[in-house]
Design brief:
By secondary structure, the chain is mostly helical. It contains 13 helices and no strands. The chain has one domain.
Amino acid sequence: MRRAMNSEAAPSLLGVTLRRSFTTGRFFLGYGSAISVVLGVSLALSPGSAFASTFPFLLPIFVVVGSMGAMVVFTNDRIKGVLEYLLAYGYSPRRLFVTFLLTALALSAVVLSVAVAAGLGVYLIRGHQFTTQFATLLVLYAIPMSIASSAFAATVGMLWTSLSSPRAGMNSPIGLIPLIGILPCLVTLFLLTTLAAAGIFSPAELLLIAAGVVGAVVLIVVALLSTLGRFLRRERLLSPA
């Protein structure tokens, strides 16, 4: 009870974690935003409907990369003992995880906003119409998959970092988590491409399948978060092993 009360009374870390992630993870945020903008503008300048049909499916891949700033801060804090200090101050592991998860989602929202605004702006300036089909792809797949994949990458990364020996650089989870984070996007692209080539499903049915994959990713994230109390004890984060 005492720990719970201390945790509740401790001030929120979300604001400072956001600022630190923007600064420390500026490479990932800048790279994810830049490559998303380049992709969107390039497709928007292409003839035909390449932007409307392709951009929503590729966008989540780069949004995940842009959200990795939160994992950089989490990994650094784990290595330097900052998490140990925060736990001693009264924060619970669950509250720390939620803080970094929300930070990752905020970073992904920044990349999403910049990329969609740039690509769609150029697309409309060139005289194309904002169609219902494109809006549906954004609402049912691109935006939800970007958020879900970023949450998946952050959750797996934090669990991995917490349950393993602290390491820096490419030997740490941050070196591989971007690849793990984009797996849902790549699996969806492969699945849709294979099914489209087979001609079994209509475009509307393929979109529903894509939305189903997004739902599956969300369920995986929820399942991982539900294991925090069982696998991530306070003593584990305090342990150097």
